[in-house]
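Field log, afternoon session.

UNIT: design team B
ACTIVITY: writing a sequence onto a fixed backbone
BACKBONE:
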């Protein structure tokens, strides 16, 4: 259930039975030659909306403006500072608490959001906040491994592109038709959570925007399976999360 399509009276009634809400987080950044700029936001939004509809939980508007400084040498990328993102998330949480929400589930689609989200969540010990990237659910991760193995890579992954193919549009591979350069295990570890270098260096190192991901392996059928698995996992995880018993203010 989309919060932006609800009335205040509907939210008022909802809060008498539930104090939970789902917030999708993504990015606005390049995703290689066949990936959409909004990929991260589109993936988490789709999964959140389907899960929310299934279990009758509100889904807040997607946070699509987030930090992605390393992709700023690719046109179309919009990046905000970590400080601004943390301030934004903080004020969103404060607003939700003000109305009585005390269980907040961030379903995430962009690695660089994780650390700032965790920082902010730590400042609200009295409410329940969960932060989970959709690809980290076990069932989703198995699908990724089984379908794409090492070619999943780190950015413009066949999985995320498969999801947007299932929900939005499919582009020809173009410059992404050939496999990208393979990443070493140590590179992946050192750059987890999108800890990439300065924009010019990043583009030089990964000229077509893919970071170890063979985007062209994506197909919409797998995309649909990934969405379905993520939706089931999210509904279970959300429902298992307790609401805070005490009022928080
Ligand atoms: Ni992405």
């Amino acid at each position: 259930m989309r919060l932006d399509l609800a009335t205040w009276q509907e939210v008022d009634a909802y809060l008498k039975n539930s104090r939970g809400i789902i917030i999708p987080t993504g990015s606005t950044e390049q995703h290689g030659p066949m990936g959409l700029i909004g990929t991260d936001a589109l993936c988490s939004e789709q999964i959140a909306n389907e899960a929310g509809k299934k279990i009758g939980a509100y889904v807040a508007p997607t946070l699509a403006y987030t930090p992605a400084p390393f992709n700023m040498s690719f046109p179309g990328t919009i990046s905000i500072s970590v400080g601004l993102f943390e301030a934004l998330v903080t004020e969103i949480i404060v607003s939700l608490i003000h109305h009585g929400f005390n269980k907040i589930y961030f379903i995430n689609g962009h690695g660089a959001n994780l650390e700032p989200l965790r920082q902010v969540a730590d400042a609200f010990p009295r409410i329940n906040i969960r932060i989970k990237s959709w690809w980290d659910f076990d069932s989703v991760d198995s699908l990724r491994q089984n379908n794409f193995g090492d070619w999943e890579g780190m950015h413009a992954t066949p999985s995320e592109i498969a999801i947007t193919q299932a929900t939005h549009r499919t582009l020809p591979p173009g410059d992404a038709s050939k496999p990208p350069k393979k990443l070493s295990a140590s590179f992946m570890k050192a750059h987890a959570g999108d800890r990439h270098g300065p924009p010019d260096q990043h583009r030089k190192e990964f000229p077509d925007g893919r970071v170890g991901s063979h985007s062209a392996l994506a197909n919409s059928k797998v995309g649909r399976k990934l969405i379905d698995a993520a939706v089931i996992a999210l509904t279970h995880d959300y429902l298992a999360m307790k609401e805070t018993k005490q009022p928080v203010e």
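LOG NOTE: The first helix runs from residue 8 to 17.
NEXT ACTIVITY: expression trials, pending approval
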